[in-house]
């Protein structure tokens, strides 16, 4: 699942080396914690959240028996 999300997110990012993905699975829930560069956050979320929703839908299709969450955080580090 991690490589699936990574294959969607990294091509969209201007700073793909900053992209970090952590999958947390607990009690029938799958949470994808996605860390992206602050300049890439808008591209990953998309207009009206369309890209984020699409990523969530792909995750739901890959894990139909689990509740799926996508948590996108901005990396505020220096370059």
Automatic annotation (TrEMBL):
Alphabetical list of SUPFAM superfamilies matching this protein: Prokaryotic type KH domain (KH-domain type II)
PROSITE patterns: KH_TYPE_1 (PS50084)
Annotated localization: Cytoplasm
Keywords recorded for this protein, A-Z: Cell shape, Cell wall biogenesis/degradation, Chaperone, Cytoplasm, RNA-binding
Keyword Cell division on entry: no
Role according to the record: A probable RNA chaperone. Forms a complex with KhpB which binds to cellular RNA and controls its expression. Plays a role in peptidoglycan (PG) homeostasis and cell length regulation.
Assembly behavior: Forms a complex with KhpB.
HAMAP family in UniProt: KhpA (MF_00088)
Family membership: Belongs to the KhpA RNA-binding protein family.
Protein's name according to its UniProt entry: RNA-binding protein KhpA
Organism: Aciduricibacillus chroicocephali
Gene (UniProt): khpA
């Amino acid at each position: 699942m991690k490589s699936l999300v990574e294959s969607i997110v990294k091509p969209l990012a201007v700073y793909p080396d900053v992209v970090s993905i952590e999958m947390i699975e607990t009690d029938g829930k799958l949470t994808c914690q996605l860390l992206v560069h602050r300049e890439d956050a808008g591209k990953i979320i998309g207009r009206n959240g369309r890209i984020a929703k699409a990523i969530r839908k792909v995750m739901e299709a890959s894990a139909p028996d689990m509740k799926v969450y996508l948590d996108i955080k901005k990396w505020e580090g220096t370059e």
